[in-house]
């Protein structure tokens, strides 16, 4: 039996813990990290996309745009 055999297993155990924490961090961290600046679409941009896709007509677009501008 070597003098450092117990120390080896202790370090081996610590490395397993480090690898497990690292893997959990990679795979379980949500993609939308808090504090990360993400640009969200404004209501007007969403309204413009709906007009462009044909979901709403120009008259409805103008009505909703006026409602947004009031707020």
Automatic annotation (TrEMBL):
It holds the Pfam family SHOCT. Residues 43-68 form the SHOCT domain. Keywords: Membrane, Transmembrane, Transmembrane helix. InterPro entries: SHOCT. The chain crosses the membrane at residues 13-31. It comes from the Bacteria. This is SHOCT domain-containing protein. It comes from Roseivirga seohaensis.
